[in-house]
Specification:
about 450 residues, alpha/beta, Amidase signature (AS) enzymes, 2 domains, about 15% strand, binds glutamine
């Protein structure tokens, strides 16, 4: 069976792809990634492929160019298999906000795969591809990686160009990857990272040989255990798995030290004020004129806007646009938007300070393992709280990774998160390989 046929078969079980390509549509060149099968989250542009962003609005939209990260992978020899399912415009934690149906978790098909890059996580977990691209604005790579038992890498903000990524919250959005191994994540990062003239926020710091990270000695590294990440609401099996992970690190010669990030309690609030504000502005371009579907039979221009947006966006996207417009409106701008910007700075300073004491942080990726489809979809607040351990690294921009470290009593994957200093992806790989557990699916 070709990888394309394999992906099509698996897609029938899990609904993880929105498009599987015909063999030969994107011929691979030879290079560092020679023949690596890759799936692309449908929020990243690939020339001549659909770009739906999980939305009805863009059902028939086709990309005119490729995202920089996608182009770099292609030049390095990646074989593109398809575009993956996702929460609409990357808003969600369960993939239930996709206009194209929920994605099922291959570990237990009654459970969500996490979101918003749920399709990418599943495409790797079920064996359809070796690597999948995702985007992480508040946890959308790390949380589904934890739920599906894969490695999930969110590099430093600015490490990979965002050119060709449909913006959700531009000062948070980060391109990254899902893979079965740390080696694949490292070699793909090596290829994708680095400055790009098309994205002014992509930095010019030299790209390291991340694939050497697995050979790096971790003895003597100081691992901070932030007390704010071990409070109430964490499932006991996750707590236990993280305790076991700590022991492993101690055995390898790392030093564990208790640390504190005192402004953590404001992170979810700050995240949902600032990202909705940015989203309300970014999504203004979907007006039925320039992109996507136009509502029929509107008498005036205003009516065209209103009807196209009412018909094109799903409920979660509308909720975020309204929240964002509210926090930016005159009268509330100072109380919410400006205040949240100030707290963003305090959260960044927490990280700057803590990394004077330690080289990396270890936390759970999520407070729970994969939850049931339908369980949280009618309770946005419960859904938002699932991001509690992941949003901070997007508020601060620090690199972070989720590593599979075991299974809970129901056989569902558990992820541990490592966070390091800005642009120190090397230590994510070095520490990651010491705690990595290969998880075996029964069926
Ligand atoms: N779950 C978060 C949200 O709904 C994160 C999304 C993301 O990282 N794209 O906003």
């Amino acid at each position: 069976m070709t990888p394309f046929e394999n992906a099509k078969t698996l897609n029938k079980k899990y609904n993880c792809f929105l498009e599987v390509f015909e063999a030969g549509k994107y011929p691979a060149s030879s290079g560092k990634l020679d023949g690596m099968t890759v799936a692309i989250k449908d929020v990243l542009a690939l020339k001549d492929a659909h770009l739906t962003c999980g939305s009805k609005f863009l059902e028939n939209f086709t990309s005119l160019y490729s995202a920089t990260c996608v182009e770099r992978l292609q030049k390095a020899g990646a074989v593109f298999i398809g575009k993956t399912n996702m929460d609409e415009f990357a808003m969600g934690s369960s993939n239930e906000n996709s206009a194209y149906g929920a994605v099922l978790n291959p570990w237990d098909i009654t459970k969500v795969p996490g979101g918003s890059s749920g399709g990418s996580a599943v495409s790797v977990a079920c064996g359809a591809v070796r690597l999948a691209l995702g985007t992480d604005t508040g946890g959308s790579i790390r949380q589904p990686a934890a739920f599906c038992g894969t490695v999930g890498l969110k590099p430093t903000y600015g490490r990979i160009s965002r050119y060709g990524l449909t913006a959700f919250a531009s000062s948070f959005d980060t391109v990254g990857s899902f893979s079965q191994t740390l080696e694949d994540a490292a070699s793909a990062l090596e290829v994708m990272a680095g400055h790009d003239d098309h994205d002014m926020t992509s930095v010019n710091i030299p790209v390291e040989e991340y694939s050497l990270g697995s050979q790096k000695d971790v003895r003597g590294l100081r691992i901070g255990i932030p007390k704010e990440y071990f409070g109430e609401g964490i499932e006991p099996d996750i707590r236990e798995a993280i305790e076991a992970t700590k022991k492993k690190l101690e055995k390898t010669g790392c030093l564990l030290i208790p640390v504190s990030l005192p402004h953590t309690k404001y992170a979810v609030a700050v995240y949902y004020i600032l990202t909705t504000a940015e989203a309300s502005s970014n999504l203004a371009r979907f007006d039925g004129i320039r992109y996507g579907k136009r509502a029929k039979e509107s008498a005036t221009l205003l009516e065209t806007y209103v009807r196209s947006r009412s018909e094109g966006f799903g409920p979660e996207v509308k909720r975020r646009i309204m929240l964002g417009t509210y926090v930016l409106s005159s009268g509330y701008y100072d109380a919410y938007y400006i205040r949240a910007q100030k707290v963003r700075r305090l959260i960044k300073e927490d990280f700057i300070n803590v990394f004077k004491e330690c080289d990396a942080l270890l936390t759970p990726t999520t407070p729970t393992t994969a939850f049931k489809i339908g369980d949280k979809i009618n309770d946005p607040l419960a859904m938002y709280l699932n991001d509690i351990f992941t949003v901070s690294a997007n508020i601060s921009g620090n690199p972070a990774i989720s590593i599979p470290v075991g299974l809970d009593r129901n056989g569902l994957p558990i992820g541990a998160q490592i966070i390091t200093k800005d642009f120190d992806e090397m230590n994510l790989f070095a520490i990651g390989k010491e705690i990595f557990e290969e998880l075996k699916m029964k069926n």
